[in-house]
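Q: Second attempt. The first request was missing the SMILES, so the protein and adenosine-5'-triphosphate are both included now.
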Amino acid sequence: MNPQPKATQVARPPAIENAIAIASGKGGVGKTCLAIALCHALAKRDRSCLLFDGDLGLANIDIQLGLSLERNLAGVLSEKHSMAQAVNRYPAGGFDILAGESGSGALSSLSAAQLHRLIDGLRDVAPSYETLLLDLGAGIERSVQLLSQAAPLKLIVTSDEPTSLTDSYALMKLCHAAGVPGEFRIIVNMAASRHDGEMTYRTLLRACETFLKFRPGLAGIVRRDRHVREAIRAQTPLLTRFPNCDAARDIEEIAGRLLAGTP
Ligand SMILES: Nc1ncnc2c1ncn2[C@@H]1O[C@H](COP(=O)(O)OP(=O)(O)OP(=O)(O)O)[C@@H](O)[C@H]1O
Ligand SMILES: [Mg+2]
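A: Got both inputs this time. The predicted holo structure:
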């Protein structure tokens, strides 16, 4: 892993105390399905949660859940409605959703000032919830950096593929180089077994210890499970459709540990 990417300096938004960002660097490692299931698991434990689609221009929380939501962040951006008005209740999961808009050019090319306004709007609605989960996009561009910075806890999702490990490391390194405060914890997704997942975590941990001199904790391991894909294809929440499958049980455990505050 190359130890020296350059941090792009952007003004740092003040933290949203109850926000948890879910990021990965690499695309397609399961951020969105983990974010949805984690939010669902927290809601099942009576936690009031807001799920924010931070993959702004390629948003797909609504798609994974089969929802057609009239109000979303594109409407907030064009001042059709306020951030609070754009919140949608999702009764089947017991949580609220702030949806993006897939294919929205406006949302995918926000200026730093627009991103700061969006994050300020999010900060305004945050006190109505115990937890805000931010599902971030792939990559390490400005929106990912700013939203990561706003969340005191960052869950970094990786698989065992070298590209995924490298990108997760690069994202943590950028944040580290920019002096981003807060805690990082790793979720190993699509692990062949818990043992394999632990090996993957240790690989990433070693790189962080050696080059960045910090130790991200392990938030949890989610096993590879065909039910995840089946639930997405059916546009139904994993925890509703297959509540006892391996991945669902792993995610429930992560939610329990998050609430207990133990990595
Ligand atoms: N634990 C798992 N077991 C098996 N398949 C999984 C698992 N987690 C995710 N997947 C598969 O990975 C695919 C990508 O998931 P998802 O869209 O949530 O990733 P993402 O990181 O949000 O992608 P993007 O970077 O494009 O936003 C899903 O369609 C699903 O089929
Ligand atoms: Mg996604």
